[in-house]
Amino acid sequence: MQCPEGRYHVDTEFCALEIDPHEEGDDWVRGEVIATGFANRAMPLLRYRTGDVATLRKRAGCRCGRSRPTIEELDGRIEDYVVTPDGRRVGRMDHVFKDALLVKEAQILQSSTDAILVRIAPRPGYGPDAQLRIEREFRARLGREIEIHFETVDAIPRQANGKFRAVISTLAGGQLRGAADHAMSQSDWPSE
Description:
The chain has about 190 residues and is mainly β. It has one helix and eleven strands.
């Protein structure tokens, strides 16, 4: 819940919230949100991995007077970074497809800093013009040095939870989580 100070407090009467740490500082921890809800007695979700990344303040307290833990940042879905040839780590790549109405689903795979593979599950009408617009969006974010390969697929492969990852990287600098957490190994990727 959000208080008058604009901070987000964990409502500990209705849920237990944990963070699976990806990064940690003295008074904060950033990682995947794991939640146990107390309100649904018919079908409780115990230690549910939400797939969202957040930063939790370790020390409770706020000017509003509440002493519950606070969420400093809610980053959204877990996804890896794209690493450019010059070493930049670029996140939130889902924005590339924001206006791509002819794309049903898309996924970015990266196994080298030189190139990415973009899997696209198209809607009817998708063609070279739509792909060119998407490539321009990538270039605006990633630059001209990285190669962009496209692959048309019927659907993006799902993980055990029924969802797919928008960006999967096998590069150490691109992974938000360990390589063992990825839904597929590099050997499962199509050859470029």
